[in-house]
Design a protein that fits this description.
The protein is α/β, with parallel strands linked by helices. The protein has helices spanning 24-37, 44-51, 73-83, 94-97, 116-121, 141-159, 175-183, 217-225, 228-234, 259-264, 273-277; strands at residues 3-6, 8-9, 21-22, 40-41, 61-68, 88-92, 124-128, 165-167, 188-193, 206-210, 237-238, 244-245. The radius of gyration is 17 Å and the shape is globular.
């Protein structure tokens, strides 16, 4: 089952997020490919209900997810989804969208917290992407708990209902992070993993496919088909729902990658590790150092 991870949908993104941005025209083509595939878009809540045995999923589901909360999300992006009756899930970084909030994300056009309720009304459910977008597996437990708790509380106050789902910034997590996410009241958490998901996914480490500007409609169609081409390009194995499953550790996503990238794992795309260790309530220390971008979230 493909779980797509989008960030911004805009024609002229800031340079630091450009690698993970698609244009509105490309995005519309991706959505048309979803419709043509015959797959049924579901929310992460629906997937969680299936994993918990509360409700079945359709035979060929697909999940569309969006991280951070860029300005296009509650406007043209949500409108494009709604026009095709496509459900989605958005994970919002509350420090980046709240009045007076602080986050480690570099400057970019962002939506506002006040728009979150309207986003849900349009058919896109809302989850947490922490307060500051810190790399969670580097934080002391007290700061980690604050990131998980405070972002959830802010969103619940804005929406008037429980927020059940989390996406790890940059996809980074650990056993400690997953346990604390469960203790904070989240029912699921999504990572990156560059693999198609399946019913064998762990509830607190759901695999997603990150969408880059270099990905074509043919790539999207391959992921939707879950065929040989998708398995070869994502390093996955076939599973249920007419797609592929996570049959092993995370692997590089589509496109060329070096031997070093395969052995060292993904690199951070936003702040340095030193930034991530900083108190989540502190302002980001100066311009972020953008490293070689392979993953984001």
């Amino acid at each position: 089952m493909p779980v797509f991870l989008y960030h911004a949908v805009m024609d002229e993104p800031p340079s630091w997020i450009a690698e993970f941005t698609v244009t509105p025209k490309e995005f519309a083509a991706h959505l048309d490919a979803v419709v043509a595939s015959g797959r049924t878009p579901v929310t992460v809540s629906a997937f969680a209900d299936h994993l918990a045995g509360r409700a079945p999923l359709p035979d060929r589901p697909v999940l569309l997810t969006f991280d951070d909360g860029f300005a296009d999300l509650p406007g043209p992006t949500a409108e494009a989804l709604a026009a095709r009756n496509l459900a989605a899930t958005a994970y919002l970084t509350t420090g980046a969208i709240s009045p007076g909030g602080r986050s480690l994300l570099p400057p970019a056009p962002m939506m506002t917290l006040a728009q979150a309720a309207g986003l849900e009304q349009s058919g896109t459910e809302v989850g947490s992407h922490t307060v500051t977008h810190a790399q969670l597996d580097t934080l002391p437990s007290r700061d980690l708990a604050r990131e998980l708790r405070d972002s959830r509380a802010v969103l619940e106050d804005a929406l008037g209902h429980p927020v059940r789902h989390l996406a790890y910034p940059h996809g980074y997590n650990s056993g400690r992070v997953r346990r604390m996410a469960a203790a904070a009241g989240y029912e699921t958490a999504t990572a990156v993993r560059h693999a198609l998901s399946s019913e064998r996914d762990e509830a607190y480490r759901i695999a997603r496919l990150i969408v880059r500007r270099s990905h074509t409609v043919a790539d999207v169609e391959s992921w939707l088909a879950g065929g040989e081409h998708a398995s070869r390009r994502t390093g996955t194995v076939r599973g249920r729902w007419g797609g592929a499953g996570t049959g092993g550790p995370a692997r590089c996503c589509a496109g060329p990658c070096s031997r070093a990238s395969r052995t060292r794992g993904p690199t951070r795309a936003f702040p340095t590790r030193a930034h991530a260790r900083a108190s989540p309530l502190a302002a980001p220390p100066g311009p972020c150092v953008v490293r070689a971008i392979r993953t984001a979230g």
